[in-house]
Amino acid sequence: MTESTFVLPLWADLAAVGLGSAQGAAFAHGFQGKNRLDLLGVALIGIMIGMGGGLIRDILLGLPPATLQSNLYLVVAIAAALVGMLLAGVFHKLNKLIILADAVLIGLFGALGVSKALALGTPVVPAIAIGVAAAVGGGVARDIALGLPVAIMHVGSLYALAAAGGCGVIAVGFQFGVHPYICAAAGILVCTAIRMLSVIFDLSLPEQRRLYRRRVAAEVAVETGSIAIITPDMAAGAVENDDPRGSA
Q1: Do 104 and 188 touch, CB atoms closer than 8 A?
Q2: Which residues, other chains included, contact 167 with Cβ-Cβ below 8 Å and sequence gap of 6+?
Q3: 45/143 Cα distance (integer angstroms)
Q4: Cα–Cα distances in angstroms (integers) from residue 24 to residues 57, 67, 185, 194, in the given order
Q5: 3-class DSSP state for residue 37?
Q6: CA–CA separation, 19 vs 101, rounded Å?
Q7: Phi, psi at residue 245, to the nearest 5°?
Q8: pLDDT for 142-199, tens place per residue?
Q9: Please, what is the end-to-end C-alpha distance for the chain in angstroms?
Q10: Which residues pair with 32 in a beta bridge?
Q11: Residue 179 and residue 118: Cα distance in Å, rounded?
Q12: Which residues of the chain, if any, have pLDDT below 70?
């Protein structure tokens, strides 16, 4: 298989844009009325998620963004965002469905990113990195826009690890000449499985777990009074007592 043939079709790119926009708008709809987010803001968040992965991928590859080279991308993103807003109530009742859609979306954007990078002759390791960036970039932009803690940094998220696992499978398949559709399907399946297992079993990296336990221990110590809490009034009193001018 030549590098030029290892690329996913336009419909796969549009499917990622549509799924991302719908999922992003449904997620942002829950913040309507909070932080002054209106329907336009919800739609923009959805479009950002849908088109963000492709933009990041093409910028890293030094290419004109594919999402800006055709009318289809923006049309699909807007239509899917509207659908996401209309069905937001249904999605929120099926929280597991949103988590699953998010996991599949990570795998799909990762597959599109790494396959396009490999098709352009990018070395394997940078190609995987580009796939991971495309997979998680939209979610990072979403969290920043909504003023939320970035999910990829949270204990147990395993977003980047799941994306890297899926992209790695695709890169290995490329090296062995496996058909791109089979590589993409396997990569998306691996990525989705890692992400869902991390949610179901609360899995995380060892260092993340240690940091989480330290934070919880500190919070418990503060709540139980094991750690003295210095208030501003106490601090001011200590300064006055130590002032030589006040002890004369």
Answers
A1: yes
A2: 110, 111, 113, 114, 127, 128, 131, 132, 135, 187, 191
A3: 10
A4: 19, 17, 23, 21
A5: strand
A6: 8
A7: -70, -25
A8: 888 888 888 777 655 688 899 999 999 999 999 999 988 999 999 999 999 999 988 8
A9: 89
A10: 37
A11: 13
A12: 1-7, 33-36, 154-157, 204-248
Q: Which of 160, 181, 159, 161 is nearest to 170 (CA)?
A: 181
Q: DSSP 3-state assignment of 99?
A: helix
Residue 37 sits at φ, ψ, to 5 deg, of -90, 120
For tokens 């923009």, what's the residue? 44
CA 88 – CA 202 distance, rounded (Å): 26
Distance CA 150, CA 10 (A): 30
Instruction: Report the alpha-carbon distance of residue 14 to residue 29 in Å, rounded.
Output: 22
Q: Reduced to 3 states, what is the DSSP secondary structure of residue 190?
A: helix
List, in order, residues 6 or more apart from 103 with CB less than 8 Å away: 162, 191, 192, 195, 196
Do residues 159 and 139 lie in contact, with contact meaning Cβ atoms separated by under 8 Å?
A: yes
**What pLDDT, on the 0 to 100 scale, is given for residue 248?**
39
CA–CA gap between residue 47 and residue 78 (Å, rounded): 6
CB-based contact 220:213 (threshold 8 Å): no
Identify the bridge partners of residue 187 per DSSP, sorted by sequence position: none
Closest CA to 150 of 135, 165, 137: 137
* DSSP tag of 102: H
Place of tokens 């139980």: 224
Q: Match 């807003």 to its residue by tokens.
A: 85
The whole-number pLDDT of residue 22 equals: 92
Residue 143 class from Cβ within 10 Å (0-12 exposed, 13-18 middle, 19+ buried)? middle
For position 171, what pLDDT does the model report? 95
